[in-house]
Protein: Carotenoid oxygenase
Organism: Arabidopsis suecica
Amino acid sequence: MQNGTYLRNGPGLWNIGDHDFRHLFDGYSTLVKLQFDGGRIFAGHRLLESDAYKAAKKHNRLCYREFSETPKPVIINRNFKNPFSGIGEIVRLFSGESLTDNANTGVIKLGDGRVMCLTETQKGSILVDHETLETIGKFEYEDGLSDHMIQSAHPIVTETEMWTLIPDLVKPGYRVVRMEAGSNKREVVGRVRCRSGSWGPGWVHSFAVTENYVVIPEMPLRYSVKNLLRAEPTPLYKFEWCPQDGAFLHVMSKLTGEVVASVEVPAYVTFHFINAYEEDENGDGKATVIIADCCEHNADTRILDMLRLHTLRSSHGHDVLPDARIGRFRIPLDGSKYGKLETAVEAEKHGRAMDMCSINPLYLGQKYRYVYACGAKRPCNFPNALSKVDILEKKVKNWHEHGIIPSEPFFVPRPGATHEDDGVVISIVSEENGGSFAILLDGSSFEEIARAKFPYGLPYGLHGCWIPKP
Ligand SMILES: CC(=O)/C=C/C=C(C)/C=C/C1=C(C)CCCC1(C)C
Ligand SMILES: CC(/C=C/C=O)=C\C=C\C=O
Ligand SMILES: [Fe+2]
């Protein structure tokens, strides 16, 4: 294994004072590092010093709006009712003041070497030192786009640039933005208007790119003004399900910002796009269709509420995890109105669970063959296996041990590799007895290469990145 650091982010602390958080996505960001050095692993973890976490620690209570949690107003004098308190909350929400900066979703290495933790609020873009895990400070965007408050949690990063989406809640749509490595300034490449007449744009946790295009999802699961203002969460949190308004995918040229396709597709629910690429069906060098793959939850929104901590803790051992699959979209580039959505590989082969995916990063935007993701060995209430899916041959290899919960299987290509699956897969695994270990699987055979046991348990985590040692 080459020398370098695997860094993983995720919610790790789910209570403050005597208050227990409700949802998996609410927890305060906890970074875990696995430093590979001369065939040995050195591990460490640390909480991210976001304003939200620091304020919670100082006041021993929730101070910012998290994914499902809204801080209770502090009542100074019970007899005094501020007639404007309702308005105040709306102002605080729409000015972004009350939103969290708890960057607990992912961590990326920018092309210039800076390492940034992220969540769906723009203020939750925080730089860290990947060796000490110290919080360096906010990533200061120098482009005036931060007024829009929210962003996709999964920007697409290469050595030279970063692409991301900024949803527009006022004029429902998405800004597609690009930031050069070394810069703090995002430029707007183009804008897509939502097709549906609903108030809010579709939720975008992630999106996809091909070599020449950006694929922008418009899911029927939409931001909802009603639910954004509610203090108590609904089963769909800040969102609402609007299948009657249609489901769409838009394709924008990276070069010109022009929307070259906008198709209606069957209803879908996804957190994570896997990859996308262009296909030239006529063999004349001109792309005729875009293929975009995602972890698709059979258009069933229940998964969002299944990730409530109480549900996860109390349903252990019950087979209640809703089914998921690799959803493959075909988006014609000939002006057709409709796109297709199919199941890429029979979902039974990966236990009908599919999320927390990764691919060989050298195949980003290219025709590719292998997906690494969390699958399942039923019965289960949460993805409890690692799966390697060959989407060409439609074969799956699964890795599972009794009582485990593995986090995202992260693929690191072997330097100099010539095969797509030549590399290692890293995952951090929680055990039934409260322990945890890091596991390395061979990217090709999907057999265990090594494991390193932690002297304590680590919480479940979300997304990571690889930082090679220079
Ligand atoms: C951890 C994860 O995958 C998602 C986290 C999402 C968050 C923190 C979303 C926060 C939001 C608010 C606090 C209010 C506005 C809407 C929204 C972006 C959902
Ligand atoms: C844990 C998760 C989504 C995380 C977002 O970043 C999804 C799990 C889905 C279960 O099948
Ligand atoms: Fe995610």
Remarks:
- Residues 85-94 form the longest helix (10 residues).
- The mean pLDDT is 94.
- The CA atoms of residues 251 and 305 lie 30 Å apart.
